[in-house]
Amino acid sequence: MDSISDDQFSAWARSIRNGDEIAFKNMFDATFENYVRYAWRFTKNKDTAMDIVQESFIKLWQIRSNLDPSKSLKTYLYQIVKNNALNYLRDTPQDSAQLDDLQIADESSVVFKEEQESELLEPLKKWIDELPDRQQEAFKLSRYEGLSHDEIAEIMDISARTVNNHIVAALNNLQERYKTYKDVNDKHYE
User: Fold this and answer.
1) What number of helices (H) and strands (E) belong to the chain?
2) I need a surface site. Which of 49, 71, 111, 134 has the fewest CB within 10 A?
3) Max CA-CA distance within the chain?
4) For the segment 13-25, what is each residue's pLDDT rounded down to a tens digit?
5) What dotted CATH number matches 6-100?
6) Rounded to the nearest 10 degrees, what angle do helices 73-91 and 149-156 cross at?
7) Contact yes or no for 129/104 (Cβ under 8 A)
């Protein structure tokens, strides 16, 4: 979704607000998979995630006359998807393990040298999953969804400065864990 400009989202918002079904379909086709990946982080089930995103687009269409093209449509839809996913989790009996582990790292977004990939990917995924919830959410929205601090702030209902603090804390945490990991592994090879 990084390739879709903010101007395109604003154009879609104006057109959708005016009832343009073609613009709505174009936006749906261009963004659906990204929103499904986001919903899947909560549900861990692709079919359920797809249903949640479809319901989110239906809600967007129903409230289209209230859209403000000067505000981020992309962020607004992330909020709708998140709220629908959380409502689903609240209203549907879940395994306690599933509720404890709502999000996973997107391995395809992490790039390493080939020789380090298999060795470092699992610990990194674990470290990200062990971040405090708010740090983890801000970090993943920034690094895996490509959202700006302002967009993340809207989704998380916090200030952009607090988003920055969460991301910096997450990066510091991950850096410390990596240093410890590296020190331990370097000693094994001496």
Assistant:
1) 9, 0
2) 111
3) 68
4) 999 999 999 999 9
5) 1.10.1740.10
6) 30
7) yes
56 touches 84 (CB < 8 A): yes
**Do 104 and 41 form a contact (C-beta atoms < 8 A)?**
yes
Cα distances (angstroms) measured from residue 131 to each of 136, 166, 171: 5, 10, 10
Q: Which two tokens stand for residue 72?
A: 């981020």
Residue 4's contacts (CB-CB under 8 Å, 6 or more residues apart) are 30, 31, 74
Q: What percent of the chain has pLDDT over 90?
A: 40
Q: What is the pTM of this model?
A: 0.60
Q: Does domain 107-188 have CATH number 1.10.10.10?
A: yes
